[in-house]
Design goal:
Rossmann fold; alpha/beta; globular
């Protein structure tokens, strides 16, 4: 984000205007996300930055003009409700739950990824492609997981796919009760051998917790990964990860940003001020309303954005979602390293799964071997 802002400031894109930024780490916690949202809506005053309460926010001018974030849907939802009051443009680069497409409830929310409606359809068509008609489904017990399961069950029904079991996994996995629920879930997997293919909607930290026990018990299945962990290095680096079976998943389409690697290599703290994120980076390397009309020239302008990057056209649809599809990722597990190989894609315009790798095409014939 800093790199992009610097590129804009060094260009003639916003003639006579320089962008600044504030960055907050919400630590994947909804309460902290709400606090950050209120800080971003604050107004400068002599006594410090404050969020003023008004009946009408037409002429209210907070410190920032637009917000990028959050990552997880369960954090973007409460933030979007707050930003909606002032029609503050909010753009997420990862929150994919389908309810965020509802512009009646989340008028100022946009995202650079597709809605989960498309991902669940892609997963169902992938299952159908391999002629797997009996699958298990596991999802976290939060907005992301529950919404994804609802959408997937609907799409699976259209493809005549039977759900062998449908289980929830706790979003927070730090207490004894969560550990017991995971143990019960794994016993369910063991007792349903016919469901040799399992669709898993969960964050990487939860997948790590689940797979630790899956590996310990020697359970082997074919796993279909949601975007939340389809390219997770934390999962890929797990000891004996290759024993869990084949892993396929859809990931958001990505591309290389010109100049970004050079930016990382030359990353330095600002001349004035303090940037703990840069210090942490080096540490890791070394070791629908008329209200607020001013923000509505901006919201409308952002919705009309259309540009090409890495030979791929980008724009928002009428729901504020990205129209790009997904890359199909296959985990190629060797002795000491796991590689994420793009073996196909799901194209949104024609709603078809394309697989270009012959070895992956054979997965459907050999099952979990």
């Amino acid at each position: 984000m800093i790199h992009t802002i610097e590129m804009i400031n060094n260009s003639s894109l916003l003639d006579g205007i320089k962008l600044g930024y504030e960055i907050y780490d919400t630590c994947s916690d909804a309460s902290k996300a709400i606090i950050a949202a209120m800080k971003l809506l604050a107004k400068p005053s002599s006594t410090g930055d404050v969020l003023e309460v008004h009946c009408n926010y037409t002429d209210y001018k907070p410190i920032v003009k637009a917000v990028v974030g959050e990552v997880y849907s369960e954090l973007s939802i409460p933030m979007a409700r707050i930003f909606n009051v002032m029609l503050m443009p909010q753009i997420s680069f990862a929150s994919s739950t389908s309810i965020l497409s509802n512009k009646g409830r989340f008028a100022s929310f946009m995202r650079t990824v597709p809605s989960d409606v498309h991902q669940t359809k892609a997963l169902a068509k992938l299952v159908n492609y391999f002629k797997w008609n009996w699958v298990g489904v596991i999802a976290t017990d939060d907005e992301y997981g529950m919404s994804a399961v609802t959408d997937f069950r609907l799409q699976a029904q259209k493809q005549n796919i039977c759900i062998g079991f449908n289980e929830e996994i706790p979003t927070y996995v730090c207490d004894d009760q969560s550990t017991q629920r995971i143990q019960t879930l794994i016993s369910k997997i063991e007792s349903t051998p016919n469901a040799s293919v399992i669709v898993l909607f969960a964050k990487q930290a939860i997948v790590v917790k689940l797979f630790n026990e899956i590996i310990r018990r020697g359970i082997r299945r074919t796993w279909l990964a949601s975007d939340a962990w389809s390219m997770s290095r934390a999962v890929a680096k797990m000891k004996n990860i290759k024993t869990v079976g084949n892993i396929l998943g859809f990931s958001f389409k990505t591309g290389c940003i010109p100049g970004f690697l050079s930016h990382l290599r030359n990353l330095k703290p600002p001349a004035e001020g303090y940037n703990k994120f840069i210090e942490k980076y080096w540490e890791l390397r070394s070791t629908c309303s008329k209200q607020n009309k001013n923000y509505t020239e901006l919201l409308e302008a952002m919705r009309m954005v259309k540009f090409a990057e890495a030979k791929r056209l980008f724009y928002f649809d009428e729901s504020g979602d990205s129209i790009n599809g997904y890359d199909l990722i296959h985990w190629e597990m060797e002795e000491d390293v796991t590689k994420f190989k793009t073996v196909g894609e799901y194209k949104l315009p024609d709603k078809v799964v394309y697989i270009y790798d012959e070895a992956v095409k054979r997965i459907g014939k050999v099952g979990i071997n």
